[in-house]
Amino acid sequence: MAHYRASESKREQFRRYLEKAGVLDSLTNVLVALYEETDKPNNPLEFLRHHLGAAGPEATDTELLRQEVAELRQKCDRLMEENKELRNKLLHYEPAQGDGAPE
Length: 103
Fold this sequence. Notes:
The model has no long low-confidence stretch (mean pLDDT about 85). The protein has 2 domains: about 1-50, no CATH class; about 55-95. Helices cover about 75% and strands about 0% of the residues. The longest helix has about 35 residues, at about 60-95. With about 100 residues, the chain is mostly helical. α2 crosses α3.
């Protein structure tokens, strides 16, 4: 019986935690919105995600972003290499600082 009470106490603490954080209100509002929808969505879980603000990027968007990141990394590598080459050329044509040459 003590185990049952401990379990109930944990549930009550968790319920208060959810209530204090506003989770219960948010869930209630979204469920009410779903209930009041005249045209019920084909995917109610997606409806909940969207209305809770948890809708993540689409798979196609994610893939496009990954591809863009890869292209930008390659471009960055090319620019870093070009920068290195130009610095070497510049060092070759400019006298070293501190040689006593007037500026």
